[in-house]
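Letters spell out the chain; backbone shape is given numerically. Take this protein:
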Amino acid sequence: MPELPEVESARAVIERAGLQRTVVDVDDSDTWECRPHRPGEIRDALVGRHLTAAHRRGKSMWCEVSGVAAPTLGIHLGMSGRILVSGPGGVAEGGDYQGTGRRADPSRRREVWFRFSLVFEDGGMLRLLDPRRLGRVRLDPDVDALGPDAAEVGREEFRERVGRGRLPLKARLLDQTTIAGVGNLLADEVLWQARLDPRRPAGELTVEELDGLRRRLRSAVRTAVRQGGVHTLEVVPHRGADGHCPRCGAEMRRATVGGRTTWFCPREQV
């Protein structure tokens, strides 16, 4: 599922290929994906304008739009969403967990899976491919409730936000109002890297442990963005009943933390 690195990949594709291109049509007919807007409402707000910038905080992404009193365009990928941007020749560039900047494979797409589209004056398109229909497109999304971005949060703010209370550490990391962008796989990865038990109360961590966790989080995000997604990180392939810790060889253990399936090394994560 898309996490912060995958959303950053999608944002980068929009920034690289979708800006400064005049919108001449919009398909916003999917009333579930585009709720609460009526069909045509997003179209009326965007036709004749162009996207001027693409932003992200955590897993939320939005684009600035040209013109006076223009809305912002929010795009949330959900669990299965991908962004494809095509040029005048029709070749699409995708930002998704198949890899940053890779060309999309047309044989893997079905027309019904495209839930939202912008048509540009030059003949190209920006499209949201979402087989499971769990994404969201809306005007002027509210991101104020989100915490600071996990890739950018400062040391003091991370200590204050994460290192408090009795909530299990992994549950604290997954709370998007604490810090934005950490999903289930990324949390397991950075806690494994930091050798921290995901069930440990967050408020028990020392300053040194919090600082080390933040460094590993930022490093893991950079690595995942560079390599094409969280699935490329070191411990993620070992999350399973037959998985073993890549460092010490111990059998990985399963738990439920914050309602999410969690895998950790019982020998090293203490």
